[in-house]
Every structure is written in C-alpha cells, then in structure tokens.
Amino acid sequence: MTAMEAVKIGLLGIGTVGSGTFRVLERNREEIARRAGRRIEIAWVAARDVAKARAVVGDAIPVVTDAVAAVADPAIDIVVEVIGGTGVAKDAILAAIAHGKHIVTANKALLALHGGEIFAAASARGAMIAFEGAVSGCIPTIKVLREGLAANRIEWIAGIVNGTSNFILSEMRAKGLPFADALSEAQVLGYAEADPTFDVEGIDAAHKLTLLSAIGFGIPVQFDKAYVEGITALTDRDMTYAEKLGYRIKLLGIARRTARGIELRVHPTLIPASRLIASVDGAMNAILVKADAAGVTLYYGAGAGSEPTASAVLADVIDVTRLMRAEPQERVPYLAFQPDALSDVGILPMAEVETSYYLRVRVRDDVGVLADLARTLADAGISIDAMLQQGPGDDRGETDIVILTHPTRERSFDAAMERIVALPAVRPGYSRIRREDLG
Amino acid sequence: MTAMEAVKIGLLGIGTVGSGTFRVLERNREEIARRAGRRIEIAWVAARDVAKARAVVGDAIPVVTDAVAAVADPAIDIVVEVIGGTGVAKDAILAAIAHGKHIVTANKALLALHGGEIFAAASARGAMIAFEGAVSGCIPTIKVLREGLAANRIEWIAGIVNGTSNFILSEMRAKGLPFADALSEAQVLGYAEADPTFDVEGIDAAHKLTLLSAIGFGIPVQFDKAYVEGITALTDRDMTYAEKLGYRIKLLGIARRTARGIELRVHPTLIPASRLIASVDGAMNAILVKADAAGVTLYYGAGAGSEPTASAVLADVIDVTRLMRAEPQERVPYLAFQPDALSDVGILPMAEVETSYYLRVRVRDDVGVLADLARTLADAGISIDAMLQQGPGDDRGETDIVILTHPTRERSFDAAMERIVALPAVRPGYSRIRREDLG
C-alpha cells in the first residue's frame, strides 16, 4: 500500500500493558497500516526478565535488558514506555529524548510528578510526548480535551478515573459488603493489587486528575497541590443512606475553574442517582466534562487492562508516526495550550473549596438533639437541604441523623463540625462526604 | 503570544450553527489562541438575508450574499460551510476546493450523499475537509473513531444520533404520550421542525450513520445502501410492553461488521434497560462503539444546537489551522483510512441481517392461539426468548401477545410473519421491533 519505510518502536516493558501493545499491534497490523499509511514495527523489547519477555514476543524480536542504554538505538523512531513508576522509566524517557526519540507513555505517576521537567526536555529537543494511555485506559480523554473541545472554555471535569475503587464501591453497593470484604473480592478477581494503597487512597486518581486539569485549564502539572482522600473510610451504612436520599457514592476526581482559583480534589462524592455517571459500575471509567459551548459531555470505557490501555498507547503511536517529520507548530501542544500561554491561576486550598455535604452523626435519641444540630449549622451559616432520621433509637438509645447541606466553604463546615462533635448528645465518630450535583 | 498571522475564515451561513460559531469564536478568542497558537478570525459572512446576518455579526464584519463567488477571496484560508443541504452548499464547497481553500462543514446530508465526489475533489487539490459537526453535535465522535480508536478493528457502532427522535421517544415513555402528541410537544419546544420528516423517518440518523460506517470500517460512503425506518409507527403500548420486559425503545443507527458483509441500518430498537445508553434521554446523543482492543466505549453529549455544534466546527477549524501547511501524509485521512486502502466489503441487504425481534400481535383470546404462534415461529426455525400475554381478553375477546425471539435472519422472520398474519385468530396489524443486546 505504501512505499514509506516502517516506523520502528523500542518497547520498554512487556508487562500487562506492554504485552497488550505487542498483541494488538500484531493482530491489527493491516488495519493500522490502512489508517496510518505506514507499517509500525517493534524493533526490540526492553525487559528485565528475558525469559518472561520471550514468552510473550517469541523469538522474532530481540529482547534487551538495559532500557536506558537501549533507547540510543539509531534504528528506532519512537520509544514506548510502559514500565511504569518513576525510576527506570524516567531515566529511559529522558535518555530517549536526549537521543531525539519521540515518546509514547502510559505513565501517569511519572507525568503527574515530573511532567514539568519531562515536557521541558522534550520541547527543547523538538520531541513529541504522547500519553493518552496515562488517563482512563482506552477512552481518548486527552485527545477529546486537547482537540475535540479545543474551542471551549472548560468549566469543570469530574471523573471516575480509578477502576479498582469503582469496582469496590459497586460491590459494596450491590452486595451490601463492608469495604474490607469488597477489597478482598477485588484482590481475588485481580482488580486490586496486593498493596492497594495507590488505588483505594485516591493517589492514582489524583495523578490522572492532575494531568486532566493541566490540559483542561492550561495550568502547569501540580500534583502536590491536589487534595486526595480515598475510599477506605466509607461504610456500607453510608451507602445505604445515600441511596435512600437518591444518591450514589463514587470516588470522583474533580477539577473546577472558579473565580477564586482552580479546585483540584479527589474524594468520595455523593452524586444524584439520575446522572448517567452514577450508573457507571464495576471497573469502568467515565469522565464528565462541562464546557461553555459544548455543555456536558461524557466519555465512558474500560479504564485499565492490557488491551484497552494498548488501544490508547497505539493510537498515540499512530499520531506520532503521522507527525514525526512535521513542524512543531503543526503538532498539538503536550498539555493542549501553547507552552508560553500557560495560566498562573492558583490551586484553591481544600478549606476554601465550596461544596455541599452529606453528614451522618450518631446521637443519643433525646428531644432537642436535632434542634441543636440544626442550630449549630445555622450559626455557621450552613443551610440544610434534606434530612433523614432513622426512626426510634436502638437498645442503647442511639440513632443516626443524616443531613444534606447546601453549598458552603469547607472551612465553615469544619468549624461547625468542631462544635457539633462537642455537643453532649453526639457520639464519637461521624461521616462527612462531599456532594456534587454535576448538572 | 504569537507573531504568526491570523487565520482567516469565510463563514457560509449565519443560521443556528453559524451564529453559534460566530459567538463562540468571539467569546473564546483568547482561549482558542492559547491552544491553537494563532488567532482565528472571520473575514466575512455569506448570507442571503443581509439584515438578519447584520443582527448577529454587527457592523464589524462584511456580509456578502453570493457564497459561491465569495469563496474565491484570496484573503481567506478556510471556508466554514454551515448553510446545510445539497444545493448552494455543494456548489460553494466545490468552488472553494477549486480555489485551494480548506473546508470545515457540519453538513451530514451533503457528505452522506456526495461525499465521494467532494473528498475526491479535495484530495486532488490537497485540501482538508473536516466535518466533526456533521455527526452528534459537540461529541468528538469522528475524532474518536478516526484517531482515538485507530489501533482497533471496529466491530460495531450503535448510536442515538438524532436528538429530535430521542426527545420524542423520551416523552412518549415518560408521559405515556402517543407519537403525534410527543411530536407536537417537540415542535412547540423547538426540538422538531414544522416538517419533521428528516428526523422522525430516520433519514438524518442514516446520513450520520453512513459517515460513521465509512470511518469505522474503511468503506466508501454509501447512504443509498442504508436501511432506514423511522419512529412514526411506534405506539405507547409497545413502549409499555418493552418496559415490562426490561427494555427501552430507542431509534438507533447500527453499523456492524459481519463475515457476510456490513450491516447499515437505522430503526427503532429494543435495548436492555440496564445499558448506559438506554438512559440517554431528551435531545441528547450517545454513540456506543465496540472495538477489539478497547472493548465497549460510549460518548455522550448534545447532538445538535447552536453552540454545541459550533464547538465541533471550531475544533475542526483549529485542527485545520494547525495542519494547513503540513504535508498530506501528516494529516489524518478524511475517512480515517488511506484512500488507496478502502475495503470493498458489501453492505448486507436488510433481509440478510440477523437480529432478534419484539413482536406484538393482537389475537382472539382462544385456546390454542399461542400454540399456533409458537408453532409457526418454530417451523421457521425461530426460537422464543420471552413471552408476555396480557391477562384475559377485552370485551371483544381480544388480547395482545408479545414475543421476544432469539436472533434470526430478517428474511426468515418476514416469512414467518406472512404465515402468522394468515392465522384465523390473528387480528390485522402487528408491531415488529428489532432488538439488540449491545453487550
């Protein structure tokens, strides 16, 4: 079909995503060439465990062990980094850029933590860095934000961007499981790792949200400014109450532009059950974007996994293949905005963020307790949107009161909570979950 | 920010989409320049009604009346066609291509009917044709299919791509309205035109589906081969029965790759209520794509309207701006696949399509009627998946029998129906609606 020479890739890593990339490229070789107009070939694979790599790629492709040294190979055009982490991956990417290679990576942690350094190095060498696979697996979220919605002023982005925690929350809701049991189930099924910290503590979601916020608003990558709260403290009881009030609880990454600064926060969130994103269950991802001209759009798909992530990685490879010899101004900027046109709008500290709250407190079932709670909130300027009291008290004379507030600043809410926990009828421990309308 | 000269646009048409394009470009001038690296300016507007155009654009921009003559203007780089239809729009686009202009259009009818001719002319002149606004409004469906999923073999595409008919179906379901009343409501609210034929007969959806099928499968644009059935014959009674069986009825455009050919069909479809796309209500659009590596992904947003469509039109303008001076091989092919790599797989005639059916027949409530129906279907090799009979007969001794079949060829189903309507207990008139699992 084409007389052009094949594009040669050095593939760093042959784990879950790497083997998917190898497999999809093999299987769809013709289909990809029909679109790209050129053949795309893997020149070699870099892997620490040669035997394991051989088990995936067979004997046809060389396997090298030193990724950092390998990227100097003059025969390759593109380095695909799917090792993950911020160690060898970072060294290899910086070395590859120094050798004039273009980069495709699915490494959200690396870009969220060291994006500034890496993009600057690439820019100085005229190298492309494509990272669709770093956010929401196969869903072309980065392309959509960078290009599809490029004429819009993005107002906010709210996404389910961690499949593991969404799977756990779905199981908690569907089966009434406590968090620990749902986590065990996720581990048995391979949706959660032995050490699930990155997923269940919201860190992985915050890495992705950081990248999305940069692309959406034209701000630098600022992971250290993100507010991050995971799902480990969620109880099935709160899920049940939320349900009764017409809500679902999801771990959302939210980036919002406000007059006072950019909100950048990951936390469990009550969302109206009627919203499409509330029905996104299991290990799936979905990103909602509110933009001034387009309105609300939603993008849904598998957020992780071997071939879904490979789909994104290879889409990037095709894009890079097309634009390898193009002038820099013919390429989409790494973070959507021209590097000299970034905004210095600050990230809003969480205490300054305005949102609504779900509050559950356990109280002695006495006359006047509810009035005391309501009065304390009112004194802090917080008005109540809905309330749920669970019938008469249990045999210890205790009952749950659930309150949905109207929007208020987190600082005010925290101050009110200090006074509420000091009320004599209020038992230790309470649940506070933020609530978003997403309309 | 940039010393590069502004890109100049000739805007053909200043109706709903044209005025949105003007407005969004004015409002987001800075945001767009921050991304595109160049200013984008409207040089003039072509409109038949100068006074009406002036009411939108004021005095700052010239208004010309002859679109076909105007596109020769050497000062413009890009022609944005939002006139619609296949008359002046076609002449103006062909004239613009002849003058070496790049084209952005939201004209699905024109491309579905004359895409072959227009793409060939553009290719010969090295002109770009971008048409994101032609399908599903602001949702970047074409970009997603052409680029985001470029590494995949697309298996099928199923979409709600006509907001008017989806609004009508949503109203019929929510309020139990007959079709005619829901249509009137849509007309009063501005969701349907005085002559709603294009929308409610499925023609508009088929235009869009035709474009999606070309991009998804690498086949030529073949609107004349599409099977098209609208929603005018749907009854609220069928919506109620569908609901009872766990389904919703949506007007879907379906393009599917099979071993025997490509399915290309628009018709009302029962889909499981649990699918995300079943909850897409009102004038919204959603496209489901099944791809071999990515799995199922969904894209949701406003499918029409002034600013949502402008969002897509201007995204195209930004893309074209970037690649105006690029080499042809650096641009994404019009229809995703290289023009010399199109496939000649045929479109499957509807009689050969295999799908499941919802069938409602009105029968005399006699012993043995159900057995006769089941026997007739069995004789045609059609097996029954579920059945619903509405209690005892009415005062005329008549009742509805609803049957869901397993997949069968349409030819077999039609043959069985000929025998079923000839059964003595079967009353004239029946409903037959195709059913898809979309899993």
TrEMBL record, chains A, B:
Pfam families: ACT, Homoserine_dh, NAD_binding_3. L-homoserine binds at residue 193. Belongs to the homoserine dehydrogenase family. GO terms for biological process: methionine biosynthetic process; threonine biosynthetic process. NADPH binds at residue 108. Its cofactor is a metal cation. InterPro entries: ACT-like_dom_sf, ACT_dom, Asp/hSer_DH_NAD-bd, HDH, HDH_cat, HDH_CS, NAD(P)-bd_dom_sf. This is Homoserine dehydrogenase. The active site is at residue 208. It comes from Vulcanimicrobium alpinum. It comes from the Bacteria.
